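Q: Could you fold this chain for me?
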Amino acid sequence: MRVLHPRTWLASLGALVMTATAHAQEYHNFQAPSPNASVTPKVWITYAILLVLAGAVIGISLTPSKRGHQD
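A: Sure. Below is the predicted structure, expressed as structure tokens.
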């Protein structure tokens, strides 16, 4: 009797799991939650985070490397 390759078993198991998941999702009709639009995000917080991250990237990029003249 010939034994199948482990990748064949793994592919078969993956196909079985995906088929079962798709079959289970077919019968449940869940409604998507409605978004809470009453809270508006503060724009200045977004820009502050952007400036901090951009400053960190620029600061790290401008830091000189510790290389010698023989590298």
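A (continued): The chain is about 60% helix and 0% strand.
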